[in-house]
Design brief:
Layout: H1 2-14, H2 16-25, H3 31-54, H4 58-81, H5 102-128, H6 134-137
Helix pairs in contact: 1-2, 1-3, 2-3, 3-4, 4-5
Length: about 140
């Protein structure tokens, strides 16, 4: 998941204007938020990917990654429902037409969300089910 987010951020950081066009093509955000989103989102993706890779702030990073994956999937579903076939701008920006159909983007993103859900389960179930030592539980060591 870390590699996916880091790789996804690179082209968008290098080509913010092209990514802004991709964001605009979704026709979801008001015009005033498009440039801010195109500038901030790739850096957030890079930061989250680095956090996942380094294992720092893991619960928060996993939570935000999954929230972003849900938002990305919802945006694709919304455009599919409206009959729009847009270039998602996920890993490369600025192409004239969609490299794949929105249906393929959806299947890919469902796979990413499944991976994110597994990561979420792993991070949060291990935090909750951390075994107690004999001293923490109030029992004497045997």
């Amino acid at each position: 998941m870390a590699g996916i987010f880091i790789y996804a951020s690179i082209d968008k950081i290098v080509h913010p204007a092209a990514f802004a066009r991709d964001v605009y093509n979704y026709q979801i955000l008001p015009d005033a938020l498009i440039n801010m989103t195109a500038l901030a989102l790739p850096w957030l993706e890079l930061f989250l990917g680095l956090c996942l890779m380094a294992g720092i702030w893991l619960p928060g990073a996993v939570l935000v990654v999954n929230a972003l994956l849900v938002v990305f999937l919802a945006a694709l579903l919304f455009n599919l429902a409206r009959g729009l076939d847009v270039n998602c701008g996920c890993f490369s920006t600025g192409s004239d037409g969609p490299a794949m159909s929105t249906g393929w983007y959806l299947m890919r993103d469902v796979g990413f969300l499944a991976l994110g859900a597994f990561l979420f389960y792993e991070v949060f179930s291990k935090r909750r089910l951390k075994p107690q030592t004999a001293i923490e539980s109030g029992r004497a060591p045997s």
